């Protein structure tokens, strides 16, 4: 993964991502403790609602913001989003009511809905080599795992000398440093379509390409599986650790570090694996194993029983590894499924549609856990994970190929696309991507 970091622009962007996520990780721990301070045993429901509001901002606003930002400089969009996030994080220590958490989370995540798709779509233009881009995806996964590993460890140390309200200051610093690093980079200009598309088409283009591509429909189904089990971990870990195990604040950091450590290990191993194994052959078996592990933990924790603390941490680490194995290859699938000018739109579509899965799973994790118990909540979420696996197998066939033979009966012979494959006749084959000349996948009519 060192080769990707030899690119100075990417190295600076990666550093910005790491710093911002470390700050976000501190905020996650502080927010969990703030929710527990305000709501006690109902903290899981509060966090479930807060995360649901976060997903509403992502799902509802991401495509709109992406369409607006398409004509704006990438650097300005990312710096502006970081500054807004820093301002909102600065207000969080002064929260005294649950509803205030909800308002601030909505504002903060609206800014994130602007930043993240633009950031993700920029990386393939910075790293054009496929191996380097795969390394960047693993590094990105590692950066997200630092949020679950280093941030809780740092939070545990800071909590020895400050109250959890002070952790929000780290979030502010993270966003400000991220903005400063982005300001130092020289980003490639985003590819522009020769045709200036109206706003309405720009708003829906990413989702139309996404949902017309079989491998991406399969990816969306696998995102549902990852979100189902991931939501349980993120929402209910604080309840399991504090209320069920009766442990202190630092133990929550240990639990989240176990989850993040497993995820990091998988991300480190994946670049080598993906050189020899197709994405589907990694992602689908990992999703099957993830749902099976969820059912195992539900059985072990049924009723008043709980597995030993060491067993709990081991299961959390395995869940983290399988979760990472599902999500890390996603960028490779998105990169091969859109032309350069459509990548911001398709990354925004992935951002919105994948978070729509979390919009379903976060409330289930919080409210079902509160009403019927954590084991029942995990059984429900595990069932949703099974549905995602079955849908992925149905939508994304095991024998799917990137190069697809097809024809264009409605294109004239002098069309530029037909001229490019002159000599092959009406039927020709190439890496199939949904665009203006290829609006429907051949196997679907």
Automatic annotation (TrEMBL):
Keywords assigned: Cell membrane, Membrane, Transmembrane, Transmembrane helix
Chain ranges of the Major facilitator superfamily (MFS) profile domain: 9-400
Recorded superkingdom: Bacteria
GO molecular function: transmembrane transporter activity
Ranges that cross the membrane: 12-36, 42-66, 87-108, 154-183, 218-239, 251-270, 282-302, 308-326, 346-365, 371-393
GO cellular component, as recorded: plasma membrane
One family name in Pfam for this protein: MFS_1
InterPro entries attached to this UniProt entry: MFS, MFS_dom, MFS_trans_sf
Localization in the cell: Cell membrane
Membrane-protein topology: Multi-pass membrane protein
Gene3D superfamilies according to UniProt: MFS general substrate transporter like domains
Protein name according to UniProt: Predicted arabinose efflux permease, MFS family
Organism: Aliiroseovarius sediminilitoris
């Amino acid at each position: 993964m060192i080769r990707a970091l030899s690119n100075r622009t990417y190295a600076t962007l990666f550093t910005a991502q790491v710093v911002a996520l470390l700050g976000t990780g501190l905020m996650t721990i502080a927010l969990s403790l703030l929710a527990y301070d305000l709501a006690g045993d109902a903290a899981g429901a509060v966090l479930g609602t807060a995360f649901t509001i976060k997903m509403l901002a992502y799902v509802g606003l991401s495509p709109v913001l992406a369409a607006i930002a398409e004509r704006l400089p990438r650097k300005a969009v990312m710096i502006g989003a970081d500054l807004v996030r820093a301002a909102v994080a600065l207000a969080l220590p002064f929260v005294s009511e649950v509803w205030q958490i909800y308002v601030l989370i909505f504002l903060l995540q609206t800014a994130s809905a602007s930043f993240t798709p633009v950031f993700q779509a920029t990386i393939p233009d910075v790293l054009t080599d496929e191996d380097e881009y795969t390394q960047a995806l693993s590094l990105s996964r590692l950066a997200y795992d630092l949020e679950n590993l280093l941030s809780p460890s740092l939070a545990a140390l800071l909590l020895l000398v400050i109250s959890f309200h002070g952790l929000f200051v780290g979030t502010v610093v993270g966003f400000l440093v991220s903005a400063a690093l982005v300001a130092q980079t020289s980003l490639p200009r985003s590819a522009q379509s020769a045709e200036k598309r109206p706003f309405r088409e720009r708003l829906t283009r990413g989702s139309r390409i996404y949902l017309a591509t079989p491998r991406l429909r399969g990816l969306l189904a696998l995102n549902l599986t990852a979100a189902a089990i991931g939501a349980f971990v993120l929402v209910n870990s604080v309840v399991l650790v504090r209320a069920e195990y009766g442990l202190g604040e630092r133990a929550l950091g240990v639990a989240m570090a176990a989850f993040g450590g497993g995820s990091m290990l998988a991300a480190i191993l994946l670049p080598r694996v993906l050189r020899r194994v197709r994405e589907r052959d990694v992602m689908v078996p990992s999703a099957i194993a993830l749902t099976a592990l969820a059912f195992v933990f539900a059985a072990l924790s049924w009723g008043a029983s709980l597995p030993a603390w060491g067993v709990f941490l081991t299961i959390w680490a395995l869940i983290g590894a399988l979760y990472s194995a599902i999500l890390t290859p996603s960028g490779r699938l998105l990169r091969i499924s859109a032309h350069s000018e459509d990548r911001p739109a398709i990354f925004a579509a992935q951002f919105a549609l994948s978070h729509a899965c979390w919009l379903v799973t976060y409330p289930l994790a919080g409210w079902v856990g509160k009403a019927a118990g954590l084991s029942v909540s995990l059984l429900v979420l595990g069932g949703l994970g099974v549905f995602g696996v079955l849908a992925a197998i149905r939508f994304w066939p095991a024998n799917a190929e990137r190069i697809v033979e097809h024809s264009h009966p409605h294109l004239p012979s002098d069309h530029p696309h037909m001229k490019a494959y002159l000599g092959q006749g009406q039927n020709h084959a190439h890496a199939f991507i949904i665009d203006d000349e290829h609006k429907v996948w051949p196997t679907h009519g």
